[in-house]
Design brief:
alpha+beta; YjgP/YjgQ family permease; LptG/LptF_permease; membrane; transmembrane; 2 domains; 8 helices
Length: about 350
């Protein structure tokens, strides 16, 4: 394909891409402001605190805009070229339509690289800063670390807590939904505490069950030995550095759901930036089939809605174990790659 033609197509797409990035940045910032302005007016934080919160969420907003603007730019650029019969002239000149699509991957590979660096370095720290900024605005301390569904099974015993809430200092923790089974005796309680220095669990007025006896409730607290170590629960995987995610995904001491969440976020940090390239291929092939701008706008909405439905559904499937974390992270891209392949076959 003539280099001049490539430059003309890329110039048209770049013009629309700049407009798309500005549009999606504006829409997302308006959404953030609409959901936070009432809280800012209520708590009246200093201007610097409010600005720091908005600045912290900017990397996340930017990455979304960089990706979502890709189908917007390509579909509207190709619809304009269709309307002005430029694509017909190019085809009449002996250039196959699909040869207009492949050059689009080059600039969006650069976009994917920028998005990857942003997702790897700035987005996790920004999300953590966003949370800290709002706790500062609310003038309350962050909630203590907590761990869900703790289980420990040494020989001849079983310790379970539905939730462990660590206290400052890390030597004690509050237990909720507690069960201890030792030999033929089972103790259950709504509340309890963990003393890591004395290596004990204390259950508050537990119910005691033994074979052949009716359950009875203890009049006071019951303390039992517990030799496991109290580990700090893993934080939000979206806010963790990449090196921390790798360590979590390979840590056998973590719960399977926590390991899967870390593996999923690790894969998503590569998959999401490359969505820009996948969108370029799928939108480019689809744009060659559209004949007017109304259809292009409808296609943009379809792209974004379909991608968002897949993108927002797969984290739960990965954490629950219904899908392998890597497959779940790449599933939206795989779906649009298949779409691009089907459209390319249609245009061949």
């Amino acid at each position: 394909m003539p280099p001049l033609l490539i430059r003309l197509v890329l110039a048209e797409v770049t013009r629309w891409y700049a407009a798309g990035v500005a549009l999606f940045l504006t829409l997302q910032m308006v959404d953030v402001l609409s959901s936070t302005v009432s809280k800012l007016l209520t708590y009246q934080p200093p201007l610097l605190k409010g600005l720091s919160a908005l600045l912290a969420i900017t990397p996340t907003i930017l990455n979304r805009a960089l990706v979502l603007a890709v189908p917007f730019a390509i579909l509207l650029a190709f619809s304009r070229m269709q309307r002005d019969s430029e694509l017909k002239a190019i085809s009449a000149g002996g250039v196959p339509p699909l040869r207009l699509v492949w050059p689009l991957t080059l600039p969006f590979l650069a976009v994917a690289a920028v998005a990857y660096v942003n997702a790897d370095r700035l987005v996790p720290a920004g999300l953590a800063s966003w949370d800290r900024a709002w706790y500062s605005i609310y003038d309350i301390p962050p909630p203590p670390p907590r761990q869900e569904r703790y289980t420990y099974a040494p020989p001849g015993a079983l310790y379970y807590a539905g939730r462990i809430v660590s206290e400052p200092g890390g030597s004690t923790a509050q237990l909720q939904g507690v069960m201890v089974q030792r030999g033929q005796e089972t103790l259950t309680a709504s509340l309890g505490s963990w003393d890591t220095q004395n290596r004990t669990w204390t259950l508050t007025t537990p119910w005691i069950t033994r074979p052949g006896q009716p359950p009875r409730q203890s009049a006071g607290s019951v303390t039992v030995p517990q030799t496991d170590s109290l580990r700090e629960p893993p934080g939000n995987a979206e806010q963790a550095p990449t090196a921390d995610l790798r360590a979590r995904a390979a840590d056998p001491a973590l719960l399977p759901a926590d390991r899967r969440a870390a593996a999923f976020q690790l894969a998503r940090r590569v998959a999401d930036p490359l969505t820009a390239v996948v969108f370029a291929l799928a939108a480019g092939a689809l744009g060659l089939l559209l004949r007017n701008r109304a259809a292009a706008f409808a296609a943009v909405l379809l792209f974004i809605v379909t991608f968002y439905v897949l993108w927002s559904t797969v984290p739960g499937l990965a954490t629950a174990g219904a899908l392998h974390p890597a497959l779940a992270a790449w599933l939206p891209n795989l779906a649009f790659t298949l779409l691009a392949a089907a459209l390319a076959w249609r245009l061949r």
